[in-house]
Amino acid sequence: MLRRALVAMLFVVIGAGIALHLATSKGATLFSGKRPDNLGVKEGRLASCGRRLNCVSSQADPGDAQRYVAPIPFKGSAVDALAAARRAVESLQRATVVRHEGNYLHAEFRSRLMGYVDDVEFTYDDKAGVLHLRSASRLGRRDFEVNRKRVEALRARIEGRVRA
């Protein structure tokens, strides 16, 4: 009987903590993580995914099926490409554009329930005529294909297959 009461009380405390967290989490939460300091374009490249399994990038090794996603073909200028990327990002829920300058766009996507944050970056390669992108979770080891699915949703909007 005492054991049941303690377990019930534990669930109440955990539930109250989650409810308080959700009710007050307009910005950073316990699960949002710290913004990485390696974001941005360096020598024409976005940050590497390294060995992370919760990251996809169009600049990863094409032989790496876990991390590689194709870049997005785009005919036009860098300004037009990044504007299309921004419209696509802003058309998705829980997205915030953090930085948009020149040939670079960084956005954050926050999960609905716990407030996990993923960083999404774009840069335009004029010579190849493609938008390179990277999407990575800040926390955890796996993402259950969330980043890949987000990239494909963004690709569909940028390519005009889905209205942004």
Question: Can you give keywords for this protein?
Answer:
164 residues, alpha+beta, TATA-Binding Protein, 2 domains, six-stranded antiparallel beta sheet, 6 strands
Question: What is the topological layout?
Answer:
Elements: H1 2-24, E1 55-57, E2 72-73, H2 78-90, E3 95-101, E4 104-110, E5 117-125, E6 130-137, H3 146-158
CATH superfamily of the largest domain: Kinase associated domain 1, KA1
Spans of at least 5 consecutive residues with low confidence: 19-25
- Return the CATH topology of the largest domain: TATA-Binding Protein
Strand content is 15-25%
The coarse overall form would be: elongated
**Care to count the β-strands?**
6
Structural class: alpha+beta
Radius of gyration: 19 Å
Distance between the termini: 56 Å
* Whole-number total of structural domains: 2
Quaternary organisation of the protein chains: single chain
Based on the structure given, which CATH architecture of the largest domain is correct? 2-Layer Sandwich
The total count of helices amounts to 3
Largest sheet: number of strands, sense, barrel closure: 6 strands, antiparallel
On the 0-100 scale, what is the average pLDDT?
88
CATH class of the largest domain reads Alpha Beta
State the helical fraction. 25-40%
Order of helices and strands: HEEHEEEEH
